[in-house]
Amino acid sequence: MLCADNITLGDRLDGVSAGIAPGRITAICGPNGAGKSSLLSVLAGLIAPDAGAAELDTTPIADLSPRARARAIGYLPQTPEVAWDVTVETLVDLGRLAWRGGPLAKRRSGGADDAAAIETALDAMELQDLRTRPLSRLSGGERSRALMARVLAGAPQWILADEPLANLDLAHQLALLRLLRREADAARGVVLVMHDLALAMNHADEVLVLDEGRRVALGEPETALSENVLREVWGVDARWVGEPGSRALALR
Ligand SMILES: Nc1ncnc2c1ncn2[C@@H]1O[C@H](COP(=O)(O)OP(=O)(O)OP(=O)(O)O)[C@@H](O)[C@H]1O
């Protein structure tokens, strides 16, 4: 269980509590500036809150060693930028760092587990043809897929991804959603910041809605993203059409 316990962070988050279970896809939704990325960063252990705590299976995330945290939680940032212009396969290889022990020389070249995890991640994100390409010569969506492959290569127990679908075309969006569903079915935790409310409605098991740093709703998509919530939080008058699982938003 990944828990936000009364998290406060400046004027970005105001006493947010939420228990997130593994084996499910949880979407974090809300308007621009609502605090979604801030909460995801706190849950990933990248930002220390001013008050409250993020906990993984009752252990404060701040108490985990960097290596234990990196093995448990894979984090995909919102912006697909990378400091070094490495190749796709080098980037994905970096996702294995937390699994390499021993002296530096050994850490530089991975073993069979590393190689298998890297190949699986490259396959999953359809990056084999681009593996030797430097990141500076990729499109935005390709770079996003490479960053997601780095997360997958680490085989984390939890995947925390900030708008992982934003730069992807429709086919790659659906492929990634299928992959994340398989991860959840394998009892891993999947937490996604999502702006596309129809994708959240149709693919998430649970939705946490934030507004102005506060939790507004947490529950099944049909409840957390009800037409009332859309009106109150987003100020949008819309109705859900279609069947559960294939809902679309119609503006009034
Ligand atoms: N590093 C920072 N220091 C201080 N305030 C920040 C920082 N990053 C973001 N903020 C502010 O905190 C609030 C929440 O930002 P956050 O990025 O968490 O929102 P978000 O819900 O992810 O928004 P978006 O949908 O635009 O990505 C915003 O008002 C933002 O201006």
Automatic annotation (TrEMBL):
Every ABC transporter domain range: 2-237
Task performed by this protein: Part of the ABC transporter complex HmuTUV involved in hemin import. Responsible for energy coupling to the transport system.
Annotated InterPro entries: AAA+_ATPase, ABC_transporter-like_ATP-bd, ABC_transporter-like_CS, P-loop_NTPase
Stated name of the protein: ABC transporter
Organism from which the protein derives: Blastomonas marina
A Pfam family the protein falls into: ABC_tran
Keywords: ATP-binding, Nucleotide-binding, Translocase, Transport
Xref: SUPFAM superfamilies: P-loop containing nucleoside triphosphate hydrolases
Keyword Translocase: yes
